[in-house]
Amino acid sequence: MFHFSIKHIFKFTLTPSRFLVTHSARAVHRQNNILHGKPIAERILNRCKNECEQFNEQYHRRPKLVAILVGGNESSKLYVRNKQRIAEHVGIAFQAINHLMHIAPSNLIDTINRLNNDGTVDGIIVQLPLPLHLVDKTENFIDAIRSDKDVDGHTTSNYNSYRQTSIPPITIPVVAAVREILLEINEPLQGKDVVIIGRSKYVGTPLALMLSQSTTASKSSLISGATVTICHRDTHLNNLTWYCKNADIVISAVGRAKVVQHRMIKEGAVVIDVGISKSWTDKTVTSKNFFVGDVDFDEVKRVARWITPVPGGVGPITVACLVSNLLELARQRQKNK
Q: What residues does the Tetrahydrofolate dehydrogenase/cyclohydrolase NAD(P)-binding domain cover (predicted)?
């Protein structure tokens, strides 16, 4: 169970105006109040497939993505295989480099530098998490990737663009996935109260920066102008419940099974579940549905107006956005040659 104390609550406030609920189109991607990610991902991937064909015709090569995997983490292997399957489906050349668990840090840096200098490589991924002896150097490995090959958007230069510009050159895929979901819902975010559970560097914090930026800077009221509250492990449970209960949108990204209960969600709220974790004790979970989200889905869907499932919600869109990033990097690199 989460333990919360009220040490830090961050608020990003841009406008006091209240949100007026409007109902929108594109219900093809929704089943009752469940917003599935697969149709949105397919739309992005179909566009990417066309763009990949155009790239190949123009430059006589396929865009190339390389994933570096260290050790034998089964979940990481699964994620890399999934990325490979989808990348190759749209016409992207994919290479997985598997290093042994006990690789020296200098050897991993050498691999990254070799890929940086390879003109046929357009994007590089270091699959996380890394083995324990490398974890404290994670940011060093990420920053070794050239920013123009940083398909995850994790390098310091790309990450800092969230604070410096309205639209970063490459959006972190999971952040882009939440953006796509909000665009799909197609209701103005301006003036709404948004709670983000989780303050991680690559999810919670950039999400807060994106959703709280001015509508003038972002040029879209669908993904900006919100009053954003970040809750986290130092937020007292009673306060977490209060913030969520008063939010128009709740986005959870902590990787703790069913931390968001139906009593925490007000009637008609939008709930986006970014978290995913294995369920070892839930008797309702079958072998086909071994992973669960942060949200108690079956209960919360009774009160939420829109809710994303786990699996099948944010995940497929995230991979599609990664592929979209790769194509954008490939085009930019060709233009700069």
A: 176-333
Neighbours of 169 (CB within 10 A): 16
What is the per-residue pLDDT across 52-88, written as a single tens digit (0 to 9) for each? 999 999 999 999 999 999 998 888 898 899 999 999 9
**Residue 213 annotated in active site:** no
pLDDT of residue 30: 56
Say whether both 122 and 269 belong to one domain. no
The answer to whether the Cα torsion of 263, 268, 274, 276 is positive or negative is: positive
Domain presence at residue 52: no
Under 8 Å between Cβ of 37 and 177 = yes
Q: Give the residues across from 99 on adjacent strands.
A: 70
Determine which one of 127, 149, 190, 193 is catalytic: 127
Q: Which residue in the list 148, 150, 152, 294 is annotated as catalytic?
A: 152
| List 83, 149, 258, 301, catalytic entry | 83
Angle at 277 between CA 9 and CA 242, to 5 degrees: 30
Q: Which two tokens stand for residue 255?
A: 């990787």
* 190 noted as active-site residue: no
* 323 occurs within a structural domain: no
The C-alpha angle with vertex 275 and arms to 145 and 235, in degrees rounded to 5, equals 100
| Cα gap 65→142, rounded to integer Å | 15
**127 annotated active-site:** yes
| pLDDT tens, residue by residue, 266-311 | 999 999 999 988 776 655 555 555 789 999 999 999 999 999 999 9
Residue type, 67: A
Query: From edge to edge, which strands make up the β-sheet containing 64-70?
Result: 93-99, 64-70, 123-126
